[in-house]
Amino acid sequence: MIQLIVRKELTELLRTTKVTWLLLGLAALLGLALYNGYAYSTTRSAFLRESQQTTYKQFISQGDKNPHLGAHFGFYAYKPTADLALVDNGLEDYTGNSFYLEPHQRGVVKFREVSDATGLRSFGFLNVGYFAQFILPLFIFLLTHSIFAKEWENGTIKMVLSTRVSARQLFAGKLLACGLLVGALVAVLTLGALALLLIQHGLAGLGRLLPAYGCYVGGLLLYALLLTVLGVAVSLLARSSALALVVLAGFWLVGVFLVPRLASELARRAHPSITAVEFDDQTFRDKEYGVGNEGTKDYRRALLEQRTLAQYHVKRLEDLPVFYIPITIEYFEETDGHVMDRAYAAIERNEARQNQLVLASAVLSPFLAFRDFSLHLTATDMNTHNDFAQQAEAHRRRVGVVVDAFYQKNTVASNNFWKTVPQFAYAAPDLGWRLANAAAPLAILLGWLVAAGALAALAYRRLWA
Questions:
Q1: 353 within domain boundaries
Q2: Is pLDDT of 4 > 90?
Q3: Which of 49, 77, 202, 219 is most buried when burial is the number of CB atoms within 10 A of its CB?
Q4: Please, which residues have CB within 8 angstroms of residue 230's CB and are 6 or more apart in sequence?
Q5: Residue numbers of the domain that contains 70
Q6: pLDDT in the model for residue 460
Q7: How far apart are CA 198 and CA 329, in angstroms?
Q8: Is residue 386 a part of any domain in this protein?
Q9: Furthest-apart CA atoms within the chain: distance in Å
Q10: Residue 249 has pLDDT above 90, yes or no
């Protein structure tokens, strides 16, 4: 009997003009989303790879120079495009992609693509992630809002229940029919993205991406399921197609637009970020005067001189068997680095508090929870960006150590030396790290599924009554 109900509902749904046009519109949007994601990912990946190679080649072929001056020539560390950016580019356009490696100064990730984009980017970038997070829920609600309400409005539900069809069979059949249509759309979406990932990365590369992509698809199925159950439950409770549509559309508007904006504003006010001027003033004072018992810069410089003379068993700097200037450079690079590490760690802690407050608001919006889950699984989130910045800074300091060690005994560096300076390479954290960060939004999604199931159970009781 359930099979008959499913067949009947699918036939009715697919025969209606509005569903036909809805599916055609979705097909066009889905095709555009897949194309945009593929074009963005391939173009950006090639550009960043070429930029990384070009700037490094310029550095290692700069010719004979004083080692320290040559180090100031510098080169860029580029954050490679995330392997799953085709699916969701997340915060990539907003966080920047390049980190300048130069002595004395901690780099800042620069060149945000969104700064060069047109005003249309404020509406979002249509790719697979955007489609799944915002357009798919609207399709589900348009599909499910009348699945039961039309029976109440036409007065046919009592006729159907007076036959051999039970309330359980009717509810399961209609829910399954909606689920099959939604599942078909999710299948087309995920298989289309999978095919493009295969084209982009090849079979070997795809095998490396499959675990993360499989987890993303699992989260997407959970997201689609809870929205489908929610839509069917509201349709049964409302008993009016218009009322059900208003409730579901209002829920979508509030969850997609209102809650994220209110949450971000609340987070900004509850945990205000330090300004650039305050940051510069604070780090300058800490470098010059120290924190706690670190002592002033002059005091630390005197201690360094004493230690260096004792290390080489001489009484004057002029008698050192090595150049003293690179020793001071390396020493203050390290001590100033501790100051900057503390300052940036404080910024990251404040960002984490802001993000936790925004994520807490996802209990009011499953759309926000899935968006956070998607960012973590595709490695386009703020945590991955901070990891890149930390690794780039560590590489900048490694370059300084290599150059200063050479400078202690040499005043001129040729291309043979510059080629010994290591190139920067970044790999995003592994799947375990991503899943650990995605645990909170995943738990919220599961909570929403339980809530949707409870609402469906309540609606089913009314149907049975």
A1: no
A2: no
A3: 77
A4: 248, 452, 455, 456
A5: 2-269+366-464
A6: 84
A7: 48
A8: yes
A9: 106
A10: yes
